[in-house]
Amino acid sequence: MAVTIKELSYQYPDGTTGLHSISVKMARGKRTAILGINGSGKSTLLYHLNGTFLPQKGEIIVLDEPVTKNNLENVRKKVGFLFDYPDHQLFATTVARDVAFGPRNYRFSEEEATKAAETAMTKVGIMELKEKPPYQLSLGQKKRTAIAGVLAMNPDLIVCDEPFSGLDTYAEEQFKSVLDEWINEGKSLIFSTHDIDMVYGWADEVVIMAEGKILEIGCAEHILNNKELMQRAKLRRPILAEIFEDRTEKPRTTFEALKYIKSGTFDSLKKINSKEEKK
After folding, report:
1. Which one of 2, 5, 133, 149 is least enclosed by Cβ atoms within 10 Å?
2. Residue 31: beta bridge partners?
3. Residue of 208, 173, 176, 170 whose CA lies nearest to 189
């Protein structure tokens, strides 16, 4: 397992309970999405996976490493964390220095750190920005710089809080392609998002959260087609799941849906249009 959590609870200093005795296992080599409305506990859970938050009650094991105060260095060598707001992890004088900070901090040689940083910057398309100070960058450029900093560490698990927010369509597809390569190497990804349609077409596993609890975990297609579960979590179903609800075909991406539509056998849109016309 990439992550094993047993009876994890967390309470904020103001007394607000963020997590209520949750237990869950997340598989290795998967794209695991965590879904829930604001305040459901998604970020609080993610912050526990690299030790940003330490367990107050319960136990967490990530890639066979217990997440404890005395074991944080081992955990963070294996787990890369991407915050929702890139300013939280950008602080060096140039983009290149920022991306190379992690490898240098973990005792890579100067040559190794430079190479790792350049490889990561190339992957996310920011080599031309390497001498710029981060404060001069746009939000999307800052986000890609933060992404490169995580990739440069070559962790076995990447944990992302809203990884695609602030990215344009091209940058999002570029980052997803990089993460696909990551998964193909047997590594793992756990991320939170509000983009249910993207999750339906791209994620392998889905964790549904509500009020600091885990309602369900399972394959994306099964979980996101569960009407009752999605209603309990106050989440809408994916648009394609709604459109193809009565069809044997269950496309999860717009590309797959277009194939069925162009085949001439697709009539669900006609049914929907007819219902709208009768209203």
Report:
1. 133
2. 189
3. 176
| Cα separation values, 194 from 32, 43, 236, Å | 13, 12, 10
Q: Is 13 exposed, middle or buried (0-12, 13-18, 19+ CB in 10 A)?
A: exposed
Which two structure tokens, joined as six digits, stand for 54? 């330490």
- For 116-137, the pLDDT digits (tens) are 999 999 988 899 999 999 989 9
pLDDT-wise least confident of 100-104, 108-112, 270-274? 270-274
pLDDT tens for each residue of 165-224: 888 888 888 888 888 988 998 999 999 999 999 999 999 999 999 999 999 999 999 999
Residues 6 or more apart whose Cβ sits within 8 Å of residue 80: 50, 150, 151, 153, 155, 157, 158, 159
CB 234 within 8 A of CB 252: no
* Residue 188 and residue 156 in contact, taking contact as beta carbons nearer than 8 Å: yes
Query: Can you tell me the distance from the alpha carbon of 62 to that of 37, in angstroms, rounded to the nearest whole number?
Result: 25
Domain ranges in the chain are 3-236, 238-279
Query: Looking at residues 45-63, what average pLDDT do you find?
Result: 96
